Give the backbone structure.
Amino acid sequence: MKTILVTAFEPFGGDAINPSWEAIKPLQNSRIADAHIKVHQLPCIFDTSLTQLYTLIDDYQPELVISVGLAGGRQDITVERVAININDARIADNAGKQPIDTPVIAEGPAAYFSSLPIKAMVNALNIAGIPAAVSQTAGTFVCNHVMYGLLHYLAQKYPAARGGFIHVPYLPEQAVEHENMPSMSLESMTIALRTAIEVAWNNKSDIVVTGGATH
Ligand code: PCA
């Protein structure tokens, strides 16, 4: 059986829950064609998150790896196009670390593009009635760090495997605490992630969307 590894994050920045984790939990051990999904939570900590991710990749030898995180304030499910080789933390991570302008990987290239069919994923979500868009930045906090580290590790060690990153918005119960912030129901997020994973699994190359489904 082939493996799709999906990760999400623990809560951070004072929030009690992280919707990325709540939304992927129900997908544990579910199947897509001839593959099964393995979900794991990563700590919201620079470096430690990557050490754990690398161990999971070595253990599962997945053909597809998708990491998911929260982007509070965004209204859509956003499929990330690119990860950059920089850590520039606006707040401390869960271990109190706050790197400013350090590389994710010393001597690594400036950036890596997602190897997922990002437009096809966005398109499928929009067809399913779920707001989604391509995002041109995964930020400079732990999510970008994990996306960069993931793509670097795959490029070095498992070049046949594909990987990328998806951000989800706040849940409605979080929007109550964060004034004027958009939100999405947990049910929609889980459907969105399952759909996105399915499209990524079934499409090795992307579609061309005229007009650009981007932010
Ligand atoms: N979101 C943060 C890190 C963990 C998470 O879920 C980010 O966007 O960097």
Summary: The two ends are 37 Å apart (CA to CA).
